[in-house]
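Action item from last week, closing it out:
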Amino acid sequence: MDDKNNQINFLSPQVNFTKVLSTIGLILIAAVGIIGAVLIFLNSKGAFNFTPEDSSTKVATNSAKNATSSAAKDETADWKTYRSDKWRFMVKFPKEWLDPIEQSDYTLLSNLEGGDPAFVGVYFSVSNVTEINNEYTKIKSQGINQKVDGITRLQNSTIDGHANIIYKTDPAPTENGLIQSLEYGLYVSANNKVYKIYMVSGKNVTSPQKLFDQIVSTFKFL
């Protein structure tokens, strides 16, 4: 009798262990169900709007912006460089243009010979010429957007860290009377001199001011 009771007592824990496992299983199933329901609810509220398409779109957009930025920076990378030790400046200009023409009082960078409707010329003069000093003094006294004798003062800006005055003139026929030209330029004071940098362009030239701004953006004092 004692042996039979001992056998029953020894087997009883096996029955309790099974119940414990069953209870744990039910708890786990319930927990998974609750978590799943919470995730479904959050997803319906837009908490998980992370899709591969969104990520790839962002990457593509960033790449496009970087490519555009790089292209803008490299636009003048293959341009030629002109350097004047006499007047202490250097500047870049399109590689297709003619070789610089140096005179005693100015330097000319141009794409064609003068007199062509597609002519673009950028002139660099320095204040050793009395006329430039007089022009500079006169335009400094004008207000922004004020026109005096066909010259309009546009705005103030900087070139290589130096303040400058930007201006434009009314289109006028050239000496040979064949083309209408627009003069667009600036005055800047540096190295105890006044520099006049201006562009003259023919009537067939589109966006001359944009090209001028590109060239001026490469200008450096020595």
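Closing note: The first strand starts at residue 80 and ends at 84.
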